[in-house]
Design brief:
19 strands; about 50% strand; Diaminopimelate Epimerase, Chain A, domain 1; about 15% helix; alpha+beta; 2 domains
C-alpha cells in the first residue's frame, strides 16, 4: 500500500492514497512510534475529479473522527503537489462536509473549517471545570487558563473530554488570551492525547475567544508545534498554516 508521511505544525499523519477499510488494531499498529510508522493519525486521500478530492481520518487509537484540520491542509497540499486537481483552489470532501481550500504559497494552505456550532448551553461545568462547548468539524470543550505551560492537560483533558456530557468524546482546549490578536493554546485530543497542534481546536479556541469579546476576528494561535492563523466571518471559521511532506 502506498503511503506518504506528512505533518502540519508537528501534528503528523500516515496518508494513504488508495481506499482503506482498516480495523482499529491496524490503525494502532501504523501509528505506533516504536513498532510502526509512527503518527498522530491516519488519513485516506483520494482524487475525485479535477476540482475535488476526498479525505477520511482515524485517530491513533483507531477511532474515526469527523475531520482533522491539520490533516485537511496536508491532504490539500498533497493533492496540489501531485497534480490531482486543476488550479490553486478546490474542494476537499470530509465526513464533516465539503470544505474549500486554497494554496497560498509554498507548503501553505488556507482552508475553510466550517461553521461553528454553539452548544445549546453556553457553559458546562464538567469535571469541576467551566468549559465552553463548541462544534467545529469535531466536538470541542474550551477552557480559559492563566498560563498554558501550567495547564493540567494530561489530567483535566481526559476528564473533560470523556465526560458523559460529550457522548462522542471531545477535544479539550486550554486557552490563554495574550492580547486581542494572539492566543496561546494546548490541546488534548480524543483518541490521541496531547498533540503539538490541533487545527480544529485552534479554530474552536479562536471562535470562543472572539465570542467572549476577548479577541478580534483574526487571531494568531500559538501552539507547541507552531503558529496558525484563524479568521472568523460571522460563525464561519477559516485557517491558514503549513503542510509538509516528510517522506514517501
Amino acid at each position: 500500500m502506498d503511503f506518504v508521511k506528512m505533518q502540519g505544525l508537528g501534528n503528523d499523519f500516515v496518508v494513504f492514497t488508495s481506499p482503506l477499510d482498516p480495523d482499529p488494531a491496524r490503525i494502532q499498529q501504523w501509528c505506533d512510534r516504536r513498532t510502526g510508522i509512527g503518527a498522530d493519525g491516519v488519513l485516506e486521500a483520494l482524487p475525485v475529479d479535477a476540482t475535488t478530492v476526498s479525505m477520511r481520518y482515524w485517530n491513533a487509537d483507531g477511532s474515526p473522527a469527523e475531520m482533522c484540520g491539520n490533516g485537511l491542509r496536508c491532504v490539500a497540499w498533497l493533492a496540489h503537489s501531485r497534480g490531482w486537481v486543476d488550479g490553486d483552489s478546490f474542494t476537499v470532501e470530509t465526513d464533516a462536509g465539503p470544505l474549500g481550500v486554497s494554496i497560498t504559497g509554498d507548503n501553505m494552505v488556507r482552508a475553510a473549517v466550517g461553521a461553528a456550532q454553539r452548544h445549546r448551553i453556553t457553559d458546562l461545568a464538567v469535571g469541576g471545570q467551566t468549559v465552553h462547548p463548541v462544534g467545529i468539524g469535531n466536538p470541542h470543550a474550551v477552557l480559559f487558563v492563566e498560563d498554558t505551560s501550567l495547564a493540567p492537560v494530561e489530567t483535566v483533558g481526559p476528564r473533560v473530554g470523556e465526560d458523559p456530557l460529550f457522548p462522542d468524546g471531545a477535544n479539550v482546549e486550554f486557552l490563554h488570551v495574550v492580547d486581542e490578536e494572539t492566543i496561546d493554546l494546548r490541546v488534548w485530543e480524543r483518541g490521541v492525547g496531547e498533540t503539538l497542534a490541533c487545527a480544529t481546536g485552534a479554530a474552536a479556541a479562536g471562535f470562543v475567544a472572539h465570542d467572549q469579546g476577548k479577541t478580534g476576528n483574526r487571531v494568531n494561535v500559538r501552539l507547541p508545534g507552531g503558529d496558525l492563523l484563524i479568521g472568523l466571518e460571522d460563525d464561519s471559521v477559516w485557517m491558514e498554516g503549513p503542510a509538509h511532506e516528510v517522506f514517501a
